[in-house]
Amino acid sequence: MVIIQQRSWKQKLEQKQRRVESVSHLVNGSIIPTEKIVDALELLIKPGDRVVLEGNNQKQASFLSQSLVLVDPEKVHDLHMIMSSVSRPEHLDLFDEGIAKRIDLSYAGPQSMRIAQMIEDGRLVLGDLHTYIELYGRLFVDLTPNVVLVAADKADRHGNLYTGPNTEETPTIVEAAAFSDGIVIAQVNEIVDELPRVDIPNSWVDFIVEADHPYELEPLFTRDPRHITDIQILQAMMCIRGIYEKHSVQSLNHGIGFNTAAIELLLPSYGEKLGLKGKICKNWVLNPHPTLIPAIESGWAESIYCFGGELGMEKYVEARRDVFFTGKDGSMRSNRTLAQLAGQYAADLFIGSTLQMDAYGNSSTVTKGRVAGYGGAPNMGHNPGGRRHSTEAWYNMMTSTDELARGKKLVVQVAETYQDANTPVFVERLDAVDVKKQANLAVAPVMIYAEDITHVVTEEGIAYLYKTDSPAERREMIASIAGVTPLGMEHDVKQTQQLRDRGLVALPEDLNIQRGEANRSLLAAKNIDELVQWSGGLYEPPAKFKSW
């Protein structure tokens, strides 16, 4: 006879109910008064909790992060923070105050040097550096949160949320808590009677609080064309001619940077001259970069799906709904999780930059004294084994005649051979190997592995790495375009000529590009004011980008 011991199968729910009941004297229904938020957090969050604090590339739950750092460390401590983006000072103040102990993250650009120092000093325990999709996935597996703190544009009095154009990761991280009996707290800019649309239903949300100031929004993807250099224009010309045209790239993702901004601004000029409209760059997965405006206006872009919004682009996007994904209210609907998946599986090409690349093509933005993470680059910057649909660009990467051979995603790294302060991009060994030991990581934090990179572009030329399986040959190809870096000084002129003859390396002249033609006169817009003009006045740039 089997005796089944009775147990409660609602322990998480019962714990949640106790937490919710503990703040009943503070709240009005689901509304936490602004001035009571710290008191509420001290009751709703328990020591050792896994807490997701929303910090996107742009949208920050800034009121909640500033409030969390004010809680009493005697009451709330040893938190395990889970954050896709660590970008504000108080995100790390939590560790200095003893409120948090451990962190799992994806990206920490502005705080990368401070994180590295805190790891070295033992003030912060790093769980892992994740890609975005990886981190979101673990919220539903082994990092299920106890508490989620998010930001939304508006809430109605029932607790429904409107996120507007900056939805980003909010639905994903809310769902992870809402359906595992966790606590969901949303800061909103205002509480209204009626929402333009419901992005997150009130049944997913436990509490809302009207922030004392709007959430922070950073125009992370805005690049002023004034700062695009002739070298970046030369690289952009090589990308268009030697990669986009050569492989018929129609669906793509651009990373952040002046290199890709230059490509976007060359499409209506240089691309038009080459007769490529309608043949390349039709379907995009990226934020609404202002530098895309001329390409949109001149008919290059057919569709753009966005990870998030971009400050100042709201009216322009609303007026171009044939191109962007928008709701009935007219505002854009973004979703970082779905955009990451689209960039991973549905796009033919990912192009981005890096801080270091070793002799064989492994690259990383984690360097000595700087733990930046890598966000979504590894998601989109690899060849997804699960892909089954074929496009001309994907098929063009096929190098085998095997009857089961398949294509490959184009993964392009663009870098000038030297960074600022005469630091070479091309190195013999990645700093990430040393960071692995320092941070006690199981695996070195490589952003994109050599096996996934198909093309490397420098001011010297293009290395078509997908054409070889030989590590020694890869090294020779990269060295031939590595300039006067230590690696570049290894290359032999005769060997480089042989690589060019075999089509493994292409210099600008091999692509019928005259270096002297690479100058700012080719840019469709040369400053922010011209982008505004292209938009018909719909683009409203943030004040820091205005020069008039």
UniProtKB/TrEMBL annotation:
Enzyme Commission number(s): 2.3.1.187
Protein name per Swiss-Prot or TrEMBL: Malonate decarboxylase alpha subunit
InterPro entries referenced in this protein's UniProt entry, alphabetically: MadA (IPR005777), NagB/RpiA_transferase-like (IPR037171)
Alphabetical UniProt keywords: Acyltransferase, Transferase
Molecular function as annotated in GO: acyltransferase activity
Domain of life assignment: Bacteria
Matching Pfam families: Mal_decarbox_Al
Native source organism of the sequence: Sporosarcina newyorkensis 2681
SUPFAM superfamilies, per database record: NagB/RpiA/CoA transferase-like
Signal sequence residues: none
